[in-house]
């Protein structure tokens, strides 16, 4: 029953079609364009290429929806450039590993879609709610880079300033993808179309854009479709597993018992959330992101609802905790992705480079806990 | 890119035709869903609504997702806890992969059993969608596919050749 119900859900089309949009945009070489534009704008500042990498990750995140894909694609473009300009290995690799996690937070995000399906929440509302946290996360990463470069200027030497003509050319190159992303995310936020429709419009737009850039051919389309099918197939199985698991959890009454246990220790909301954050971070350091979501959502979501917080807020909080797991040993998948690109940089050095960003991550997580309005403000403002 | 090149994935016993067939089925369904949904949006905004578009998209996504799940199994792309597997030596790794394959087979067989059970349970009645009256029974058969096919695939493909 769950298999048929899940597969025939209209909302599940969002996932597949957004993945198709992302894979078609890969074919259009969007990752290089995003980094180039950001590098032309900020590259001349001390640490400018690191800032550009974060900007490139955030920009690419709007079409990718995956941490690993964002880290891998931006890493291929930005790492050689930073190393050529004598940036510290630790800073260069740490920036990309941390920046890659933005792919998971910036809408449209595959993790938010999966959460929306598992928790039966509005995917459009989740996307809108993720906008402010994605911006604050980007700003905190930029602040970490600026602070590092101020105290240790040798980490990132300044580079030549691009002319305004070069900047204009680079910005024009990303204008088409920028407009597409604005249409897709803006359309959902403004209520012009539902998330599944937005995904279809986005996929068609990406195909047209790829054709406009003369990069659309039969081989590129086949690659995009087969990659989309394989990735979405993997996620479908996780979703089906999560839904079956949640039925068992509700039958056993485990969520109620955990809520009762937490309530017996303290009825303070902040304490409960801090405990959850600690649990998610510990589990996130040994579990894959989707597995973490699969295991914890059925248990923690009822607790969140019982203490009067929005499931939408929890979705953002959970994805944020998942992201930290991507750069946190022992799993830290993004660290391994970057290590694959820069094999001569040791994992311990990459981890050292990630530490300032991990500090920014913890500050951000604390901000989400202490100020839930950072998540809920925009959906409330737009009346979603 | 295995499907695109038409060659077999390393370790798989399934011929390229299976991959091509799956790719064509899933790809066409995906493109169909994309086109219908976009036409529905355009139609709604210019005052020519497309009734039943959601039902068409649902059916297409069901076909695409069935092909996708099987593709992921064939390509051995399912999620796993790599923390444990990546740190294992050859001997224990072989045992662990065997255990993993057994659990995969059990999971997919359970899915297939449940789907077949529901299908047989509803065999006597006639289900159809509300607007376009699309018969549901063929879609239920498509849905049984990933479970029934992924079980044997996981059994034969996911266990390394040296074990089989």
Q: How do the helices and strands follow one another from N- to C-terminus of chain A?
A: HHHHHHHHHHHHHHHHHHH
Span of the ends, CA to CA of chain A: 31 Å
The SSE order of chain B reads: HHHHHH
C-alpha Rg of chain A (nearest Å):
20 Å
Structural class of chain A: mainly alpha
Helix content of chain B: 55-70%
Mean pLDDT of chain A: 86
Could you give the count of β-strands of chain B? 0
- The share of residues in extended strands of chain B comes to under 5%
Q: What is the end-to-end distance of chain B?
A: 25 Å
**Count of helix runs of chain B:** 6
Largest sheet geometry of chain A: none
Quick one: overall form of chain B?
Answer: elongated
What proportion strand of chain A? Answer: under 5%
- Main structural class of chain B: mainly alpha
Uncertain residue ranges of chain A: none
Rg of chain B is 19 Å
* Chains forming the largest contact: A-B, 47 and 53 residues
Point out poorly predicted stretches of chain B.
Answer: 1-11, 159-164
Count every helix of chain A, treating DSSP H or I runs of 4 or more residues as helices.
Answer: 19
The biggest beta sheet of chain B reads: none
